[in-house]
């Protein structure tokens, strides 16, 4: 992925989303040919020359200092996550040495211990590209029960939650407000693309989603970024029906995300999740019985 182009696109999109009244600039009631601020207006707010800012947007300049980037972030009213993304894009555009490919992602033993300790609380470990690196029994049943349980253990067959959300009908139907979930996932991928611009597998995933999902194309063009956090989603599970879960994201030392789903105690959602956990546990018991050789003592 070209960080110089991404930097220019990010600046242009953010500029187009600001109106003069948002930044206390007089508009004099004039009609504008394009939405948002003009380049010269933003340059004035940031304290840089219009020609220099134009070169940044056009990808013709890669030498923006941290001070200039902070001034642009302030003029664009960026939040902390967006500001950090701007700096990452600029750092990537300045890189001259050949980047090293990211190492294969593996789950730390301590994280696997945590998954086991969570018991019936659904949890899934996601890599930087949203590949499922591991999940516990209930996490599998909640998020992708139609996928093979041991798929994360085989790197060539690992499910990818972004791919499932945009391209898989089962996963798409899980979310009552699918557009909200899709917006969050696309924003997370956009954030990661600034951190790992030279990851070929990430570029391949984004290319696949761009070709196969018009909704992703629209969301990707918006250049929204999002840091990991908590969010409540209403889910429509095919086994236990509707339930509202809070998806909380924890960051590991290796940069993986542990997504844990919880429900309000005493609620119907809590009951539904408990039923799902029981069903998943019973299903595993059946699988174990079927896979265990018949003992000679049983005849």
Tell me the layout of helices and strands.
Blueprint: H1 3-16, H2 39-46, H3 50-57, H4 66-75, H5 80-94, H6 109-117, E1 123-126, E2 132-135, H7 137-144, H8 161-167, H9 169-174, H10 178-195, H11 200-212, H12 214-221, E3 231-237, E4 241-251, E5 257-262, H13 268-291
Helix pairs in contact: 1-5, 2-3, 2-4, 4-5, 7-13, 10-12, 11-12
Overview of this structure, please?
- There is one protein chain.
- This protein has helices spanning 3-16, 39-46, 50-57, 66-75, 80-94, 109-117, 137-144, 161-167, 169-174, 178-195, 200-212, 214-221, 268-291; strands at residues 123-126, 132-135, 231-237, 241-251, 257-262.
- The chain has 299 residues and is α+β, with helices and mostly antiparallel strands.
- It has two domains: 3-94, lambda repressor-like DNA-binding domains (434 Repressor (Amino-terminal Domain)); 109-291, 2-Layer Sandwich (Beta-Lactamase).
- Strands 2-1-5-4-3 form a five-stranded antiparallel β-sheet, sandwiched between helices.
- The longest helix has 24 residues, at 268-291.
Could you give a quick summary of the protein structure above?
With 299 residues, the chain is α+β, with helices and mostly antiparallel strands.
